[in-house]
Every structure is written in C-alpha cells, then in structure tokens.
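USER: For my understanding, would you kindly supply a protein sequence with its structure tokens?

ASSISTANT:
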Amino acid sequence: MTSIEELSDWIKNGKQRAIIAKTMIYPMTGTEILRATLPYNPSILLGDIWWNIKQFTEKGLVECMNPSDITGRLYTKTIIGRRVLYEAFKIEIQPPSEKVDWQRFAQVVRAKTRMTVFMEIACNNYFNKSIKTASNIRRLLKKREVPIALNTTIRSIKELSDINLIQCIGYADKYDSKIYQTTDAGHQIYQELRNRVQNNSSKKS
C-alpha cells in the first residue's frame, strides 16, 4: 500500500496534479475544476483534468459522488485524499455536507442557465423580496445583464420543479402567474453554492 507521504510526494511532483489538488476543496464537476485551475495554469485543458482525475481515482484519493450520471459527475476527495492534501500543502478541508443532496446538486451546476435561474429564485429568501414568477425572474436577470429568453426561463423552472428543488407557493397578477421559492432540499443546495461564492471572494480580496 502506498503511504500518505509517498502520495503527497507524487502530487507535489506534478504541476497539474498539485494545482488540481489544491483547488479541488469541495465536490466539483470536471468543468468546475477546469474553471478553478485556469487562473493558475492558463494552458490546462479539460482533457488534462479528466486524465488527472482518473489517476487520483485509481490511487484512492478521489471518488465520484454520482457515478450513474453520464454528465455532470461530481468528484470529491476521499478520507485518504484529504489526508494527502494536508500532508502535501497543509490545506485542511471538511468532508461533503450530509445535508446536501449531491445528486440534485450536480443537476443544478452542470447547466449554466438552470443554475442562474435557481440562484435567482433562491436568493429571494435572503436578499430581496420580489415576487419570483417566470417573467419577473427573466426581468431581474436582464437588469443584471444576464439575458435569458422567457421560454428558456420557463424550461429551467420546470426542470428545477421536476427534481423538487423549487415549488409553487401561490399565484400573482391577473394572469395567475406561479410564484416560486426553494424547497428545503433547494435551500441546502443554495447555501452550499452561496458559501462557495463567499469563499472565492475572500480568496481574491
């Protein structure tokens, strides 16, 4: 069996391996890992990410949280992976939260528009109290220079409703437009995503 020290040296001796290991501090998709590593290695490609994830997995450092999904697979460090990360770089990370449904989390983050619509609905509970109908969601996103067609917004709402991350809580205006907010499962996913945004912001400041 390879020791923690040997695995630590193996990671540190590979430039790409080291960058990926240090940026992969919570469950991430391959695309998210690429996005996180690009500032440190602008020449890295998605194929490089997959190759390194395959090596990490074979050595027991990383595991897939939703292997039955064809797309949007989430990868997280194992107990050994977390120990190796600390041994190599003195970076301590916590195991994935048991409160988050990671299968549904992956369905949110793997689609940019779906995630954008989800975050707009979810933030209603915390930062603004505007009524979140499909047309209002589209209007609010447009104000932030994130133009999304109404049909696309409605499709994302349906997808999020189908996996029980948002729910209709009433109706607004003369057209009886549905008002949406997050479910308990959606709230936990929003908290995870919000914490990531805050952590990334604090790193940059």
